[in-house]
Every structure is written in C-alpha cells, then in structure tokens.
Amino acid sequence: MEEIDKNSGYCTITYKLRIYSKYDDFLKKTKSIYNEIILFYYKLLLEHQEFLNLSNQYCLRELEKLTIKNKNGEIPKNYLDLEVPTYFRRAAINQAIGSVRSYVSLTQKNKQISETQSFNCSPVFYKGMYKNFNSKSVEVKLWNGEEWKWYLLKLNGKNLDSTMQTLSPTILINSKYMMLHIPIKQVVEDIRPVALRMKDENLRVCGVCFSNYDDFAICTILDKNGKFVKSKFIKGGKEYKNRTSKILSQIKKDRQNSKVITPRDHKTYWQKLEQIDDYTAHKVSKEIIDFCLMHGAKVISIAKVEENVSGFERKVGKHSPIYLKRRIINNLQYKAFKNGILITTVRQNYTASRCYKCRAKIKRKEANFVCENNHQGNYYFNTSMNIGKMCLKKFGL
Ligand SMILES: [Zn+2]
Questions:
Q1: Rounded to the nearest 5 degrees, what angle is found at the Cα of 102, between the Cα atoms of 97 and 103?
Q2: Residues 31-48: pLDDT tens digits?
Q3: pTM of this prediction?
Q4: Do 183 and 199 reside in the same domain of the chain?
Q5: End of a domain among 162, 187, 212?
Q6: For residue range 210-222, what is the model confidence (pLDDT) as tens digits?
Q7: N or C: which end of the chain has fewer CB within 10 A?
C-alpha cells in the first residue's frame, strides 16, 4: 500500500507490523466504539450537507460545535453522549466526512446507492492516542469497556529506524490476528518533471518493453544522443508461467472431473495465484528500478498500455507474463517516484515493427529480427531501443 504525491516531494509507504497482545478484546471494543462514532457523525453530516462546502478541517469544527459541550459546559442539541478522547473522536469524524463526501458525489452522479447503516472501519490512532512507538512495541489508548487506558502492544515485522517520519497508525482487527499499519513519509530527492530532466547534460533514458516469454522486461539505457549504454533482460517469465499454469490446470482438471471442490479449495488456488502475481510483479519492477539506479537513468520510457485488454492478452490469458505487465507497471510507478525516477509513455506505433537503426520495416525470426537493410539483432532489444529513442524524440532530442 504505497501512495505518492507528485507535487509535495514526499511519498508515503506503509509498514505492516503484526500485533501480539492479550488485549484483543479491548482492541475489538475500541474498534466498535470507533465505528459507532463514525455512524453518529455520518448521519449528522447528512442532515447538515451545507458543511460539505467547507474544508475538512472547518467541517470537523462545525460538527464538533454541534456535538460537544462548549466552554461553559452547555450541552448541545446533538450531544455525543460517549466518553472519548478528542483525537480519537477526530479520527472518526474525518472518516465520517470522507464517507459522506463519497456518498454525496456518487448520488450526484445518479449512482443508486443507499446510506450506510453500519461501518466496519479500522481505527486510526492520531497523536495523543499512541506513544513510545518503536519496531518492538507501542502503547495505545484503548477502551476496555469502562475507561480509556494505556496498553502496551508487542509488535513484530519490519525494523523501523528512529529517523523515519511516521504518520498516524491504523490497527486492523481480523478474526485471526491484529495488524498495525504505519505510514512512513519519505522525502523524494528529485521531483522535477520529465521535461526538465530531459535537459540534463548527462541525461540517460531507459526504454522498457515486455514480452510473453522468459524475458519479462527488456530494459535498454540510452544517452542523450540515443547512443546505447547498457541493456538488461529481466528473466523469470518461464518459471512464472510454469507455476501459474500448474495451478490453473489443476483448477481446470477439478472442474472437468466435476469433482466437488469446496469454495475453500478454490480460495486456496486463487490466493496462491494472487501471491505469485504479487511477488513476481514486485520482483520484476524492483529489478528494473535497480538497473536504472545503477546506470543513472532518471527517466523510464514505456509504450502506452491501452486500458482495455488486447486480443493477444485475452488469448494468452491472465497469469501470463504479458498480462502481468500491467501490474509490473503499476508497481513501477511508485517505486520509480520513490527513487527519484519518472515514467513517461510513448505511442506504441512502430516500436516493434521498425528497425532502431534505420527505421526500415523489420521481419521477426523467433527471438531475432532482420530489417530491409539487413540490420539484425534481438527482437525485444530492438523494441526497447525504439521506445527509448521515441522518448528522446518526444522531448525534441
Ligand atoms: Zn535497419
């Protein structure tokens, strides 16, 4: 779960830590009261939609005026008759504001949705609700059914470094286990737009294309003049295809044999596929970024991916290397930004059908190509060169 904000020079990544505690019951009680507050403010804000014209901060203030005692101790009409810490309430109000905003915007688009009757949100712990936070433990204020008290939760997972800028954690309460998600704000060194980077004296661009074979991604780095610097074939497509095919054919076999497979078996199969996809997309995108970092490419060029799945993609099906490209590119977006690299797209036309040296038409012979002027080489290398060159051309180089 990573978010990027391209203008601020920051990006947020989320660390997921497992919670070990004997206070599961209190965590559940705290979650329940949190959702009760969200629902209370959700309903109230629906009655006061004029507040939606305000910023979230002012909207929150107006809602508080309606629901909490003022300085003189006067009880307002819509009094929230629950004993809750201010910052706990504010986290819930912000959640309610978000929910009402999205509800209103959907109804304005004539979407048929009904008002929410109950919430199941994970409580966010603003400042004042947690303290002494480190990789091993955190103290949080919880509702134990009678009062709000501090409790120590043991944590396990990634190591946090004390220099990291952490934001408000969220506690996720599943039937099986509890997790603490902590967003970490990271500074991005280089947030210059692509056009500005293209003016760099020592500019390097990495053209990336994707295949449905063993080479997941083919990366070629070019300098400012379009001269070849370095190339890398990121492999693993075959192994990935083998792994997913096995699972897919197992599903097919079970269906053909009309063997009764329980929804649980199905779930296991699909979960496994999901895990493989997730892991592979992360691995490939990381290798692309590492390659760019090693050779100083600050811009990655890829061919524009159509929103609709292509005929070829449909033919080879999901869980094939070329289908995974969409996911790899998604991962690439934030991984690149985080590392000060930007991705730009070029039109797909001719990237695979022309020779990178002379622009003449090419013929493909399995893994290789030959052009009308007899230039030869690897077919995908040619495509990645073209994608890199088109990026230079797009910016007038
Ligand atoms: Zn040629």
A1: 95
A2: 999 999 999 999 999 999
A3: 0.70
A4: no
A5: 187
A6: 999 999 999 999 9
A7: N
